[in-house]
Amino acid sequence: MDIAFPYRVDGTGRTAAAEHEDAHLRDLIEQVLFTVPGERVMRPDFGCGLLQLVFAPNSEALVATLQALVQGALQQTLGTRIRVDDVTAHSLDATLTVEVRYTVLRTQSARIASFVREVPA
Hints:
Number of helices: 2
Shape: globular
Strand order of the largest sheet: 1-2-3
Structural class: alpha+beta
Distance between the termini: 37 Å
Largest sheet: 3 strands, antiparallel
Number of strands: 3
């Protein structure tokens, strides 16, 4: 069973399941992107800490760092399920927008997942 993210209980009182594989993969990507390494118990290398870089000075070097960080974290965590084709990230004020283009390895189908987060002040 692929557990839904964020965790919730369905109408029968049981743990909710993800609607389909695409939704589950998108949920997994979101968890990797927005989890700070060291935040998960027993998984200190899980995540990429993307939100920590929102207020860094915007430059080409930062964009390259972000793309490498995200691609590496996704490859390490989900490399048996997806192939990351491209990552784009944009930061405007306290809002971070990330787009991940990936291929589902099981079906060889291309997908795009977009995420927008506002960093609390």
